[in-house]
Amino acid sequence: MSTTLNSCAGKAIGRFISKPKSFPSDGFPLRPGFHRSGFSVKLQPHRTFSSSRICQTRTSEMSKKDVASLKVSQERLVGDIHHTAQWGTGKSWGDGPTEKGLSRLSLTPSDASVRKWFISTTEALGCTTTVDEMGNIFTVRPGLNNDLPPVYAGSHLDSQPTGGRYDGILGVLAGVEMLRCLNEGWVETEGPVGVVNWTNEEGARFPISMLSSAVWSGTIPLSTAHSLRSVIPASDTATVKSSLESINFLGSTPCSYTATPMAAHFELHIEQGPHLVSSKRKIGIVKGVQSYKWFTITVTGRDCHTGTTSFEHRADALVAASRMIVQSHRSAAGKGALASTGIVKVEPGSTNTVPGTVRFSLDVRAAHDTVVDAVEQELKEDFAAIAAGEDVDGLAAGGVKGIPCEVEWQTDSISPAVDFHEDCIRCVEEASEGLFGTQNLEKLTMKMVSGAGHDSVETSKRVPTSMIFVPCRGGVSHHPAEYCAPEDCAVGAQVLLGSVVGYDRLRAEKVKEGSV
Amino acid sequence: MSTTLNSCAGKAIGRFISKPKSFPSDGFPLRPGFHRSGFSVKLQPHRTFSSSRICQTRTSEMSKKDVASLKVSQERLVGDIHHTAQWGTGKSWGDGPTEKGLSRLSLTPSDASVRKWFISTTEALGCTTTVDEMGNIFTVRPGLNNDLPPVYAGSHLDSQPTGGRYDGILGVLAGVEMLRCLNEGWVETEGPVGVVNWTNEEGARFPISMLSSAVWSGTIPLSTAHSLRSVIPASDTATVKSSLESINFLGSTPCSYTATPMAAHFELHIEQGPHLVSSKRKIGIVKGVQSYKWFTITVTGRDCHTGTTSFEHRADALVAASRMIVQSHRSAAGKGALASTGIVKVEPGSTNTVPGTVRFSLDVRAAHDTVVDAVEQELKEDFAAIAAGEDVDGLAAGGVKGIPCEVEWQTDSISPAVDFHEDCIRCVEEASEGLFGTQNLEKLTMKMVSGAGHDSVETSKRVPTSMIFVPCRGGVSHHPAEYCAPEDCAVGAQVLLGSVVGYDRLRAEKVKEGSV
Asked: Where does the record place the Peptidase M20 dimerisation domain (chains A, B) (predicted)?
């Protein structure tokens, strides 16, 4: 069927118009949710596109102000957040009925329940669902030219075992709200738009984070991902594949950026850090993701009795490891990087035995790969000197030199810095500007680099990507008390909607220019 | 029966004489093992004592040289060490048949086997056995005046789960060898002498070290000790009492210093430290036991994401704890004390989460209580300052000040310094002098303070006590490769024998003076 353009008068009620109670029916098939354009009288005369004979508004013909006037419903969005938290309700952090965390491990029955809700809700909004071999769910709202790949909003619906209601969830549910707003606003996008729920982003049940977006991007082979085993105790011996089968989410579509292509990927997420909160900003315009490397450091000394061995005769692996941890903090601080140790294993682990072996994790991060490498290089030298009992920057001052220890480095993970796509970053910035006004843009937004990994790291390897951060209370996440205020959820969803529509407009221009 | 003194001619063969093939029998009952005095012709005419009509040598009439000429058999002693290691054979550390550790947890079937061997062996040497309510085994060789309490050699036959063949074992088996030497040398002591095997010294299966000597001394109530439960995994839910019953070692004699009194307690032990080995000395003359305190320190910060939280926004409990551990080493070094951390628990324990809680053990030791107290006091101030983010002695230099943490101290154990009895210390010193010669005494012995706790700490609360240390390879103990060279075992046993005989002579003098 060819595209036809018909004149159609919009019915203006303030900035928004109410939906007509009934729709014209003239024998043409109607796509559910694609019925009538309802826009401000300042718009160009409305027209119908595509197969529909009903008035709709084409994104490429909306002004920035029109885009900004598409308003998400805070009540509806926050309602969805708390409604879906019935599946995997976590620990309480307060007395209120919604003051509870979330415990929704990937591919469990509670995950299956929220997935079914996601599919039925978005299909009721006129979308088509695709489930791939990793259980990733792509829900797509058709646009004018459905030969184009969809612009996606995406994140994940799984949580940490003692997680909160916002990490990942907000990004998917804001995508659902985006679909509602597009319907409500009678907007027809140039190409399709969609929402994607990525499987096992948390890496909590199956121990690789961003697992399924990484299969989609080609980083991790499907067979590796399918055979990954649960690390949750209590005799859960399931693999990813067996879990997908058991909840009926093993799709037939290949998990690949070629089988389910994207035009772009936008991800709304809580910041999981304190910078927006502490600077009283509302939106983080995420330019990229930090570079990081993960190491396991093993310090080997010699076990001995705490009471019978003088300091001179000790090879105390823990005193050495403690100096290394202090030094890693200094080195990173000196280079504008971050260094963190989250795991320490001390052997043999007895009050009256000087530890002979200490293993600790070391997580080094910075905006640029070169800085991470410089910290690594400096610490390799410093740790060797500390193990040898030398005084590094006064750490051994006042102590007694003992027997040297040995130190070994194991590199567990290398994640180079990611630069998000400038078009996507500009879309987020413009959506923020549309919401806050040019005069408030600098005051209320912050260009930032994500410290954490997200599915967007994987999508950015294949398609233009950016992220939108919103503040979360105290910077806390991965905890039942993780909290994003309702108004902040809505602001984030508003910017997500604006970014997706903005990108759709942008690609229309590019299609016009012949550059896509 | 009254004591009779008869003249008796000794039969000299060099320094030692062979035992007669047959013994005179004149109708008088003979106590097994108490048959004939066989000493150097330089001695006073030999006489028989007590109920025996057979020639024996009274310790109070032996010269120092005579005492020194009672020679332990290295072969016999080391033979016993390896023979009894069949009960609870541990991990191999070498290829040789005896190059294995010991795994003989208290009150297990293997412990029962070695106990039976101990009783049958010492009873065959003429001793009488008493088993008390804690399964402590007192084996006593009668002396001239059996109204006097026995002078004991004592230690323990139990081991750590992955222990060695010497810790404790050497002290008991050297006691057995002492009994053999007294028999072989036809020595009648002034009062009885004995050997004691203390139950559960290691505190490995039942988690209180020196458990049964502490009941004996009145430090721990019997009911507490009896109800102590096994901490060994694999469904061992036994209590001390049920274990005593199951191996048939729940004696009827009250476990108390009044029910089984002692004149003195001497304990031969491997040093469990490197000081004798590294100074090439053979005997440690132990003057006492260090003072120590055990603490659990809890540092509370706040969990946060390693990637999303700048140093300024962190309350990193592990960076603080690492600085505290470094500082504890410094503080102790500055005061001639020891500080050690053997256990560290980091929560939540994830590579990409800055730890919100760190708990670590702190073991502070020094020769004097006042020094331990001074280290504790200094560290309480320093740790509070470190937790608050202040720079203590340059530890925070070059770092970034974050959010303050909190620190809490819990005192788990206080063990004041123990001074052993000067009479016992002198006996050990004189026995060493007798063995090495006055000219070598200083070169081959070292007066020292025990860094570890031993059953002698408990006995010293009630009776004159001292210890004898021998070198162990690399200072290693509580490990299968724990090793004391055969000649060092023999030297230690020789000094033990000399000390017990020396104390018996000393008390004879005191009895004579009327001071006992």
From this structure: 291-387
Question: Is a pLDDT exceeding 50 seen at residue A469?
Answer: yes
Whether the pLDDT of residue A397 is over 60: the answer is yes
> pTM here?
0.78
The residue among A483, A490, A486 whose CA lies nearest residue A167 is A483
Which one, of B321, B387, B353, B320, lies nearest residue A475 by Cα?
B353
**Contact flag B451-A294 (C-beta cutoff 8 Å):** no
A210-220 tens-digit pLDDT: 999 999 999 99
Determine the structural domain holding residue A151 and report its residue range: 69-290+417-510
CA distances from residue A328 to A332, A335, A357 in whole angstroms, order as listed: 6, 11, 19
- Residue among B162, B272, B278, B329 with most chain A CBs within 10 A, to mutate: B329
Cβ pair B311:A329 closer than 8 A:
yes
Cα distance between the two ends of chain B = 22
**ipTM, interface predicted TM-score of the complex:** 0.78
Using alpha carbons only, what angle is made at residue A446 by residues A440 and A447, rounded to the nearest 5 degrees?
Answer: 125
Report which of residues A180 and A185 the model is more confident about: A180
Residues above pLDDT 70, as percent of chain B: 88
Residues B250 and B123 in one domain: yes
Asked if A133 and A123 sit in the same domain, the reply is yes
Residues in A closer than 8 angstroms to B393, CB to CB, are: 397-398
Final residue belonging to a domain, choices B392, B413, B434: B413
Q: Do A343 and B346 touch (CB under 8 A)?
A: yes
Interface test with B, best of A305, A371, A391 (most B CBs within 10 A): A305
Give the integer Cα–Cα distance in Å for A227 and A208: 12
* Lowest model confidence (mean pLDDT) among A151-160, B2-11, B417-426, B430-439: B2-11
More confident site: A9 or A248: A248
Same domain for A401 and A499, yes or no, is no
CATH number at residue B364: 3.30.70.360
